Amino acid sequence: MRSNKVVVLGAGSMEFGLTSLAGIMRTEGLHGLELSLVDIDADKLQSIKNLADRMNREWDAEMKITSTVWAKDALGDARFVLMCVAIDREDAWKNDLEICWKHGVTAFAENGGPGGFAHAVRNMQLALPIMKEVEELAPDAWLLNFTNPLTKLCTAIEKLTRVKTVGICHGIGIGYFILTTAMHKELGIQLHPEPGFKWRDDVIEFFEEYQVIGKEHFEIVAAGINHFTWVLDVYDRHTHESIYPLIKQRMAELPDNFEPLTQEMFRMFGHIPVQSDTHISEYVPYSSDIHEGTWERYDIQPYDFAWSKARREKYLEYIRRAAEGLESIEPLKNEMSERHEFIMDAILHNKHAYEEAVNIPNNGYISNLPDGAIVEVPGMVEAEGVKGIHVGRLPEPIAELCRRQITVNDLLIEAFTTGSRDLVYQMFAIDPMVHDLHIARRLADDLIEANKDYLPAFL
């Protein structure tokens, strides 16, 4: 019989560890599995292990739960491997952002653009050796990857290993936030006084509430690449009729302070980009010129590192107290997840389940993007794994924007494997966010120098 072991890499991370654990433990179809938690931070690992033991008892999950700081000790015969890992995520990210801004490139600096390069190579340096261990110890396992930059990491794993991989992201939920805002009158909702996304707890709360409301009423069909997908159609979840024309009409009536870049790109291309101004700004040149002040013009929200650190400490304190029985764990039964539990359940029980967004190699699913490129499309999940659903052609201008990013990702993988700075220069030279060849070279050199402890291939 095949093993039913689930290995969670990065189990001690802030939100990922908690939400991934809750999703697994509350899903009846996963009860009775073996769960192995892995994190290099032994203290955080012990806290999440204690919480898992409590969930296991109180939710009658009947799981065998182990923990270790060494991935190789957990991977043997794994059926599923969940991965969300990073090197000095916030401090390194903040440094990448500041270097980009110093060179006049205003950037969110997480997934696309020059900052996405540094973030990707750090995490590839960490993740790819683990993938070799997966190849050796769990060759039949499915890797469910949450690690950003998602498309770049999935591209590296697909090109450089034999690991079966699907990238998972909750980004399509932002699309439901956008639709709920656009259709607030039809839904009987008062428009929020600050309708756009902000890195604040009160905004995050209504942001998540709007996602839940949107999913109850609408069904999005979207495709593209991760953090840069586009709404191709929207259906009323009850009548199953397309309501995209009405939604486009309502989008045109929104106030100017709601996701200004999203609205401008919708007006230009005729389709709604899914994942908010912060993410889509990483793949286009429209907000990256510090001298023209385009970042301020679109009111792009940079990541709030102070807010994130405070939020992380709150989560860690909750995990500690909940593990000791001092906090209720019932709210975790409704905590939003990345839907990894549904994918695992569908594979284990051959449920032929529909998923709205999976990141997998293009096999004709988007007919005018290159075959083999990692794309985000709807998919079906069954015993054999995850298969995409054919969505046809993207509008050609949108496809061209995506193709540029696919080329950037391919150059990244080649540069990483060869250690070629010239390829990094070329990658920056064709990146839409970089407007000057001299800056392309200087910015690449500065990012490599700042990350020299993590990027030995380029020294």
Please give the largest β-sheet: 6 strands, parallel
Which stretches are low in confidence, meaning pLDDT under 50 for 5 or more residues running?
none
CA-based shape: globular
CATH class of the domain at 5-86 and 112-169 and 313-353, anyone?
Alpha Beta
CATH architecture of the domain at 5-86 and 112-169 and 313-353: Alpha-Beta Complex
Q: Number of helical runs?
A: 17
Describe the structure.
By secondary structure, this protein is of the alpha/beta class. The protein has a domain of 181 residues: Alpha-Beta Complex (LDH C-terminal domain-like). The chain is 47% helix and 15% strand. It contains 17 helices and eleven strands. The strands form three sheets. The chain has a six-stranded parallel sheet with strand order 3-2-1-4-5-6, with helices on both faces. A three-stranded antiparallel sheet has the order 9-10-11. β2, α2 and β3 form a beta-alpha-beta unit. The longest helix has 25 residues. The termini are far apart. The mean pLDDT is 95.
